[in-house]
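User: Hey, quick favor. My workstation is busy. Could you predict this chain's structure for me?
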Amino acid sequence: MKWLRHECTSHQNLKLQALMEDCGLEAYAVYWICLEMVGHQGEKYALNGNKEWERVLSKVTTLSREKLSIILKRMAALNLISLSSLKDG
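Assistant: No problem, here it is.
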């Protein structure tokens, strides 16, 4: 089993607070699920570029692809994830 360090005060991070303010509390869950997916299935801190991860993320979070896209773009704008990697899939 792989482990991912999760700070107990991560909800107080200014970038995460902005994300939650702009996209709702579900965006906080999306952020951590993304980190878990990268930690479990990723290589060199990234997921395989085959877009399958977006389908899985949508299913796991029960969010529409459109809502998920908004959250991911906001995460990229806040430098929580890489914009170039997001564009590359």
